[in-house]
């Protein structure tokens, strides 16, 4: 087989890139280790930045998002006895959209025009520094496959083969792990809030998010390595009630049936550069952020948009300047999001150190009382331009 762009990974980065290339008349083929059902069912992020929604809308992918998603003006930040609303629209002119990654994934699959091969095994990337790179893999029926291309896009996450295909001497990896995780639940109950609540509490961070008018998504900070079976449903709801301030100023948290419970590790990772010869990395293959800033999916959308533009210039006009600038441009944005995610994470998570706790509360008071402080948060949460 031959194509113009061989894409490794059929998550949002890979499928959006394929879609954007298709709009520009560029052929691609996507390979994916997992089954289509597995990729579709993965519970991931739920927040799209203003700029991400613009990219999706321009690509003809905005109809269901705008009909079924929910635009939020901002978020609530709280700590015991105080809850403050930050109005991103008033502060920056930009809001965010609540739309599950699972929904976006469905839209991308429905809009797909390029072939996608699922459940492939042993994907390998070859000849990346030549102008004839290729992929090999084993199909589900056991046959050996080869795909020749002009460019390979690695959109296969931090555990996929693309990131590792860059020789050790040609890459730097920057990493931060955190001593805590998030216990996440999906619950079949209407959200108890109109917009997301980020809560600081001495017992640890809690977040009240949502997916639909009938489905809530909530998180609790737990120690790294926590086993979800240590958290029976009643314990989850009583700890959420405590940390989110149930009963304060008349606010109530309504519990409901928990349909999913899992523990998410918190880590940050950046691999640089995001290009090696004809291999370009996009999304989680190049960077992982802790979920506190809601940036992971947005970075994937931004990378796909930038890369599609760069590859269109390279393959249609034989102009490689945007491709040459891709890594630098994408990494600038990735580091901004990495900093913001680290900042939100360290401002909101309990460390057990009273000095940290006082600094966090002081920072929260400043961010919620100073227009400059609030605008900084709002700009990073809702308003990063595509190519800063
Ligand atoms: C989510 O809804 O899953 C979500 C929302 C905001 C975050 C992280 C996760 O910061």
What does this structure look like?
Pfam families: FAD_binding_3. Keywords: Oxidoreductase. InterPro entries: FAD-bd, FAD/NAD-bd_sf, PheA/TfdB_FAD_monoxygenase. This is 4-hydroxybenzoate 3-monooxygenase. Residues 2-340 form the FAD-binding domain. With 388 residues, the protein is an alpha+beta fold. The chain has a domain at 5-72 and 95-175 and 267-348: 3-Layer(bba) Sandwich (FAD/NAD(P)-binding domain). The chain is built from twelve helices and 20 strands. The strands form four sheets. Strands 6-5-14-15-16-13-17-20 form an eight-stranded mixed β-sheet. Strand 9 (121-126) and strand 10 (134-138) form a beta hairpin. It is globular and about 65 Å long. P-hydroxybenzoic acid binds next to loops.
Q: Let me know the average pLDDT.
A: 96
- State the helical fraction: 25-40%
CATH fold type of the domain at 5-72 and 95-175 and 267-348: FAD/NAD(P)-binding domain
Low-confidence stretches: none
* CATH homology-level superfamily of the domain at 5-72 and 95-175 and 267-348: FAD/NAD(P)-binding domain
* CATH architecture descriptor name of the domain at 5-72 and 95-175 and 267-348: 3-Layer(bba) Sandwich
- Mind telling me the C-alpha Rg? 21 Å
| Bound molecule kinds, no repeats | P-hydroxybenzoic acid
The assigned structural class equals alpha+beta
Domain FAD-binding: 2-340
Keywords: Oxidoreductase
Organism: Dactylosporangium salmoneum
Protein name: 4-hydroxybenzoate 3-monooxygenase
């Amino acid at each position: 087989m031959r194509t113009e762009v061989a894409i490794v990974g059929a998550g949002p980065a890979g499928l959006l890139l394929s879609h954007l290339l298709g709009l520009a008349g560029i052929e691609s083929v996507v390979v994916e280790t997992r089954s289509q059902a597995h990729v579709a069912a993965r519970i991931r992020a739920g927040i799209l930045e203003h700029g991400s929604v613009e990219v999706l809308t321009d690509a003809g992918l905005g109809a269901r998002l705008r009909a079924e998603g929910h635009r939020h003006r901002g978020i609530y930040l709280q700590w015991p006895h105080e809850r403050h609303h930050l109005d991103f629209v008033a502060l920056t002119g930009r809001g965010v959209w609540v739309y599950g990654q699972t929904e976006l994934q469905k839209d991308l699959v429905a809009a797909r025009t390029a072939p996608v091969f699922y459940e492939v095994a042993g994907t390998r990337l070859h000849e990346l520094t030549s102008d004839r790179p290729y992929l090999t893999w084993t199909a589900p029926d056991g046959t050996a496959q080869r795909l020749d291309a002009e460019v390979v896009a690695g959109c296969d996450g931090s555990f996929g083969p693309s990131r590792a295909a860059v020789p050790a001497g040609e890459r730097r990896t920057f990493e931060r792990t955190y001593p805590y995780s998030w216990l996440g639940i999906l619950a079949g109950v209407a959200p108890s809030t109109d917009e997301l609540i980020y809560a600081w509490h001495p017992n640890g961070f809690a977040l009240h998010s949502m997916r639909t008018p009938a489905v809530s998504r909530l998180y609790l900070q737990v120690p790294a390595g926590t086993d979800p079976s240590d958290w029976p449903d009643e314990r989850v709801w009583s700890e959420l009630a405590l940390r989110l301030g149930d009963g304060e100023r008349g606010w109530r948290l309504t519990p409901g049936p928990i349909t999913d419970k899992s523990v998410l590790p918190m880590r940050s990772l950046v691999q640089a550069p995001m290009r090696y010869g004809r291999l370009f990395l996009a999304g989680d293959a190049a960077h992982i952020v802790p979920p506190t800033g809601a940036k992971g999916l947005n970075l994937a959308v931004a990378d796909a948009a930038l890369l599609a533009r760069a590859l269109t210039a390279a393959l249609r006009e034989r102009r490689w300047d945007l491709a040459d600038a891709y890594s630098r441009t994408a990494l600038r944005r990735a580091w901004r999001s990495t900093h913001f995610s680290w900042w939100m994470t360290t401002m909101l998570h309990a460390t057990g150190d009273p000095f940290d706790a006082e600094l966090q509360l002081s920072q929260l008071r400043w961010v919620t009382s100073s227009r400059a402080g609030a605008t900084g948060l709002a700009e990073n949460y809702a308003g990063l331009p595509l190519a800063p």
